[in-house]
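Ticket #4471: complex job returned nothing on first submit. Input attached below:
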Amino acid sequence: METSRLPLSSSIRGKLISAGYTSLSSISSVSSTDLARDVNITESEAFEILKMANQVTCSGSSSLINGAKNAWDMLNEEEALPHITTSCSDLDKILGGGISCSDVTEIGGVPGIGKTQIGIQLSVNVQIPREFGGLGGKAIYIDTEGSFMVERALQIAEACVEDMEEYTGYMHKHFKASQVQMKPKDILENIFYFRVCSYTEQIALVNHLDKFISENKDVKVVIVDSITFHFRQDFDDLAQRTRVLSEMALKFMKLAKKFSLAVVLLNQVTTKYTEGSFQLALALGDSWSHSCTNRVILYWNGDERYAYIDKSPSLPSASASYTVTSRGLRNSSSSSKRVKMM
Amino acid sequence: MANKLIGEMNLHKRISNIFAARNIITAKDALSMTEFELMELLDIGIKEIQSAVKLISEAASPPCLSAQSLLEQKVENEYLSGHLPTHLKGLDSALCGGIPFGVVTELVGPPGIGKSQFCMKLALSASFPKAYGGLDGRVIYIDVESKFSSRRVIEMGLKSFPEVFHLKGMAQEMAGRILVLRPTSLSDFTDSIQELKESILQNQVKLLVIDSMTALLSGENNPGAQRQQHQLGWHISFLKSLAEFARIPIVVTNQVRSQNRDETSQYSFQAKLKDGCQEHTRTYDSHLVAALGINWAHAVTIRLVLEAKSGERIIKVAKSPMSPPLAFPFHITSGGISLLSDEGTELKGPGINNIHARGHSDMINFNGDCL
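Support reply: We reran it on our side without changes. The output follows.
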């Protein structure tokens, strides 16, 4: 491997190469003092370079591949991962039990289809305690559009608590279940709300989330409503936009894996000219569509709202209907043709 | 917070000097680049860049609020818990009390349906004293289409709030609170909303109405549709932040245009799902759509559609984060818009966004204009 692959500043890299240290093996055999003298850098800098070079070379030798997991272990881990219910069982079914933790899921659709509703619903549902089959986690809601309505969150939270009470009432006949301790107020207390007013703030916040989540344990879902808005207005240089966006996507993915939490990115739609006609497509372009693990598109089918799994490495593409009621997201009432597998 | 200076962020002196030397002064400059680009440009190692970016991000990221404290703030600080009542009972209850503060609300509808009537009524109720359910503040009415009529406003006031308006000098005071601006071009408008920002805070302005957003664009001589979108992108972004910053409701109106036939509203996968047979019927159903495109529609928080269907005027809550899709029939009287029933019918499907103008021509007696 070549020296230029090491994450070094360009001046040090230049010095290394001009001194003849072009491959990693040439570096690994020298001592830090020699390296410092040859390349004309300080000893501590040389030490850092050696450490970095060692990391890169070592990863190839010890225990097959460092940091890799075998597929069997991954399967076990994945099965243990919880899902966040959407409160719509048809939708949960096609999603394999709900929005999966430690994945980045993108949800897009036309205005008024219910993206924000799903966002609010998830930020409430993630808090359903473990006794009720939930995660008992907390939610981060990043609002870039100003469309988060706290009144609506309260409505959904109240409905959620009522449902849990009903459930305990039912369970009571069989064995003594604990009373529902949760109040709608507590649910709202555990939604961390950030209002983002520019793309700079959005990037800054994503960078900062790592620290925030380490300080506030139990955050199990991060909702961004919407990922698109500021990036659609303020950028002139589209190539730059793509680079910044993909770095942000990587950071989301890192967060999702590190804290095993679900990241839900809501996206807007745009019209795209393909094969001689205009079609709807999710915004932010083609290279962005690679950056999410799962992609769900919400659309109108006749008079019903449908969700379609557009992209997922593990789920078959399928669609299911849902409705938005005053109590939140629910199954569609007409249950004739529920889940369509394709 | 995007314009916070890097020099004031407790970065290591040496690092912040390097940033300054490369003309990266604000958080925006730094965060618009990826870490690797910064590494190349500043010529320092990845570790230092990462820790610098971490510090910059921490300083520039917005503060955190819990939803509960958000609710408490709203109830405590804002009169009527942050809603401007429309005095249309059914609509008010659907919207949890009226047009909410801090967001942009849009009215869409065919010409003559009553958008401006609605706006004038809102302007009036915002200027009303608190004792009568108003906001007791000034109103800025940006009247692009020259449709604002003071006489009509006073007429509405006399009919719908006679007890207030018959007090001496009240009509003058109420009407005096409504400030009408008539910009002639988009750039004119851009200048005036930028100036507004300060005066809104200083002068107790409680409502901003823009009637209409579309007229501004059509007046402009723009070759590319792309450019249009881009320009309005800035405006909606600005209006949203203005609404939020000043905690006032902003109401804009939008015109309609007929839907082009080849303009499909489908995703590519939908075509595959169905065997085209049912689809063809839909494309020939001519209806109207909002004049500003999908980017705009995403950006408004609440969209109310006013339409005419088989001789009846209907107001629909087409997009709202807190209300189900409801439709209310209404008519326009001398007292302004009033609902025929406060019980809305819930609509299903995407039809809520369609705008019908059928039978509308009969109502307003257009001669020889068939739709």
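Chain A touches chain B through 84 residues (CB under 8 Å). Closing as resolved unless it happens again.
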